[in-house]
Amino acid sequence: MVLQTKPLSADLQAETLFEDRLCVVAAASSKWARSRKLDAAVLREGPWALVPTESDVGPFTTEPFRAAGLEPPQARVTSYSHILRLHLVATGRYLAILPTSVVRFKMARYRLVILPVRLEFRPRPVMLVPLKSRTKTPLINRFIALAKANALCSGRAFANEGLS
After folding, report:
1. Which of 76, 109, 87, 89 is nearest to 23 (CA)?
2. Does residue 164 register a pLDDT over 80?
3. Crossing angle of helices 82-90/100-110, nearest 10°?
4. Each residue of 61-100: pLDDT tens digit?
5. Do 118 and 130 have their domain in common?
6. Which DSSP string corresponds to 21-77?
7. CATH number, domain with residue 87
8. pTM score, whole prediction
9. Domain, as residue range, for 55
10. Are residues 145 and 73 both part of a single domain?
């Protein structure tokens, strides 16, 4: 499964599973979670754990700040790993921008909160992208069926919880 950032080559077949948004997260015990009023201009000065800005996904994290007339935050730590960024946020000392789908499944374990900051993260498609010319094995077909079922259930849950 991928978050599409570029046009696909002709030998790939894409199927959108769901639309996902990014969100700003902090530990439930952090000073940001306890704040009643959060301003993007103040938050951008905080300690961030982000994906590298030069990555395919990097612009998704910087674009909402620029749209708000702000320079994007400078990361203290950069990593492609959601798990590393989740662990850093869980310490209470970092902020991160993560996909809502990831946060939803990890909120309780890492004691996270989605911060109510006014930044417009546009939805992005999360897709299955198999090769067109490759025969799908029964195991692959089972994985695809489970991914579709999970996406369908998650989409309903996101809408019911206000996370989409």
Report:
1. 89
2. no
3. 40
4. 999 999 999 999 999 999 999 999 999 999 999 999 999 9
5. no
6. -EEEEEETTSHHHH-S---HHHHTTS-EEE--TTSSSHHHHHHHHHHTT-PPPPEEE
7. 3.40.190.10
8. 0.81
9. 22-122
10. no
